[in-house]
Amino acid sequence: MFVRFIRLFPTSLAALFVVGLAAHQAGAQSSGEDAHLAIENPAELSKEEALSIYKSLQRRMERGYAAAQLDLLMNYQAWPLFNDAPYISATHGQRYVNSYANRMAHNYGTLAEGEKLPMGSVLAKDSVTVTDEGNVHPGALFVMEKLAQGTSPETADWRYIMVMPDGSLFGDTMGARSDAVVYCHDCHEAVADRDYTFFVPEEYVVGN
């Protein structure tokens, strides 16, 4: 049961989270869930509770991620949103996530087996950690960008980026600390028939 008392995680501890995640990384390459430092005791929230928490942190999260100064993420919260409430994602460490996609990813919500997203498509999942003890704080922003054909054959021309809540870059497969996020594509190979993209659980899809 979700504890009504919410203790916001201090921003000053973000650096400690980065250090802890980096230390954990070495032993977690084989599992996408573990590599995202899975939360052991995530709270079970109703859609209404999850939405309320997200809205209370939304602007803070946007400002934090903006510090990364990545043009492809500018105003991402104004992009089409495909879920009607944040949902727990096992592949993102048992955090509550939202699934945004830019206008180039026009077929993200209707992608058929074998169909591809066009070059320039960007998918962004921001995340929130909520535990049974009532701890609530922003999580990482997980990003996929579809590159030109042949740019990165080993990742099916997808670029993976992970931005921490304070805007620091945890890893970028086409840039700094690429080794830190190489496991992302290993996980996404499970949905290769959907152009390596996971979609929203059916009960959370907008309009369902």
Automatic annotation (TrEMBL):
<protein>
    <recommendedName>
        <fullName>Cytochrome P460 domain-containing protein</fullName>
    </recommendedName>
</protein>
<dbReference type="InterPro" id="IPR038142">
    <property type="entry name" value="Cytochrome_P460_sp"/>
</dbReference>
<dbReference type="Pfam" id="PF16694">
    <property type="entry name" value="Cytochrome_P460"/>
</dbReference>
<feature type="signal peptide">
    <location>
        <begin position="1"/>
        <end position="28"/>
    </location>
</feature>
<dbReference type="InterPro" id="IPR032033">
    <property type="entry name" value="Cytochrome_P460"/>
</dbReference>
<feature type="domain" description="Cytochrome P460">
    <location>
        <begin position="76"/>
        <end position="198"/>
    </location>
</feature>
<keyword id="KW-0732">Signal</keyword>
